[in-house]
Amino acid sequence: MAGSSPEIVRKPRADAVRNRERVLEAAKAVFSAGGSEASLEAVARHAGVGIGTLYRHFPTREALYEAVYRREVEQLGDLAEQLQCAPEPVEALRRWLRANVEFVATKKGMVAALALVAHGSTELHAYSFDRLTKAIGTLLARAVAAGAIRDDISAEDVLRALIGMCYMHDQAGWQTTALRLLDVFVDGLRLQPAAKAASTAKPAKKKAGRPRSP
């Protein structure tokens, strides 16, 4: 309509933003401890908000699962950016991968629920895969550029290896095993020029049957 003023997009109120973050942090704790069957009422109580406030931000349980999932992926992405300034690129990569193992451990009670949400949404699955591979890629490229690790492995390879290490997350002691395998994996990526040169250097073979000079 002519003469009408443009629609003003209002920013969320500060208290609304804080409430949303409190709900997400509470959901992380409650679902991790109680599994996917933990009630939304328990989440609201843990966050210190009314159930109505929770539903205003997350109208369904699936919406809350997805928000928690996205938030954790974003935090892992942010951690990768922070670690780009770490002095040791290989240790930065190791720390990021260990944070992923800790993420799975923290989410043990809600892994199945989050997996259903992620696999039920092609967009969400693509988003998380893209965000995590980019995070790995930045750390991997830095370590390769420093001549610290081999250059024939991709970010997707590392992510698949990480998933494989955490595959047995429902068994007792899985985290200790995953972290040990992770250290073996990262150490296996290292380039060690001196050791490599020593292992590849071979003494020249004498030709058999050659007569000696008189």
Our estimate of the beta-strand percent is: under 5%
Q: Indicate the CATH topology of the largest domain.
A: Tetracycline Repressor, domain 2
Q: How would you classify the helix and strand content by structural class?
A: mainly alpha
CATH architecture of the largest domain: Orthogonal Bundle
The residue fraction in helices comes out at: 55-70%
The secondary-structure element order is HHHHHHHHHH
Please name the fourth-level CATH homologous superfamily of the largest domain: Tetracycline Repressor, domain 2
**Integer count of domains:** 2
- Helix count, per DSSP? 10
The biggest sheet, with number of strands, parallel, antiparallel or mixed sense and barrel status, is: none
| CATH C-level name of the largest domain | Mainly Alpha
Shape: elongated
Q: Termini separation (Å)? A: 111 Å
**Low-confidence blocks of residues:** 210-214
**How many strand segments?**
0
The rounded Rg comes to 25 Å
Mean pLDDT: 81
What does this protein look like?
This protein has 214 residues and is mainly α. The protein has two domains: 13-59, Arc Repressor Mutant, subunit A; 65-192, Orthogonal Bundle (Tetracycline Repressor, domain 2), CATH 1.10.357.10. Helix content is 68%, strand content 0%. The protein has ten helices and no strands. The chain has helices at 14-34, 40-47, 51-57, 61-83, 89-106, 111-120, 122-145, 155-165, 174-189, 193-200. The protein is elongated, with a radius of gyration of 25 Å. The model is unreliable at 210-214 (pLDDT under 50).
